[in-house]
Amino acid sequence: MLIPFMANGEGLHDRSSEKKSGDTEIIITRCEDFEVTGDGSAEPWSQTEWIDIPQRIEKTDTYLTRAKVLYSETGIYFLFDCEDKVLTASMKEDNLDLWNEDVVEVFLWTEEDFPVYFEYEISPLNYELPIIVPNYKGDFFGWLPWHYEGDKRTRHATSTRGGSKEQNASIKAWMAEFFIPYKLLNPLPNVPPEPGAKWRANMYRIDYDQGPTHFSWQKTSGSFHEYNKYGTFIFE
Fold it and tell me: Is-contact 73 81, C-beta < 8 A?
């Protein structure tokens, strides 16, 4: 999922300003709203550091994956950069089982007293799955948003480097950039976050070059839904 980054010339292998996976808390920088382009070229991304998303399954090839997070008055932004060789992506509709192909995912648990969280998945072909998940002692199921329109909709885009954005293409990396509006997260508590607020969260990737290979910011023992193992976003 990666090679040189982009406009500013920053590369994946320049990791001096990158947060490591051992950091269970990260500060989320506040920004003004901006356009999502899919290539991370917007200036606000230069205001925050990369977060390492380690590969959790040892395979012949180890791919580097990293993410950035920002928040604004209206929502929260994510940028993923993923080293890759083959684009395993054939689904061409939203709300499918995207986790069965190449994908990145974000889980946002906004209040620890309330075992309901938001899950967002996006494929390299720019198809999405946004769901609210009630999780009662490991018994969980996702619910799609109702009246998903206007300022309640996400904004999202993807791009590739070293190859075309199509099924089974040989590439060097792909990126996903997306914005989740707070209005989509209603009625989750602690939304929108005030400065100093804390959300539990995790960030993931699944790649299929060598069979299902999992990447995560905070390590779980097998299920992405182990919310008690999530890290913490602290809003600046």
Answer: no
CA gap 169, 137 in Å, rounded: 41
- The CATH number of the domain holding residue 146 is 2.60.40.1190
Q: Which domain holds residue 184?
A: 18-235
Is 58 part of any domain?
Answer: yes
Provide the token pair at 172. Answer: 């060097």
The residue count of the chain comes to 236
Q: Which helix (H) or strand (E) holds 134?
A: strand 128-136
Q: Determine contact, residues 124/102, Cβ cutoff 8 Å.
A: yes
Report yes or no on 214 lying in a domain: yes
Residues 26-80: tens digit of each pLDDT: 999 999 999 999 999 999 999 999 999 999 999 999 999 999 999 999 999 999 9
Number of domains in the chain: 1
Residue reference for tokens 């509006």: 181
CA dist., res. 72 & res. 161, Å (int):
28
∠ CA 84-41-2, rounded to 5°: 15
What's the pTM value of the predicted model, to 2 decimals?
0.90
User: Does the residue 110 lie in any domain?
Assistant: yes
Whether 9 is in a domain gets the answer no
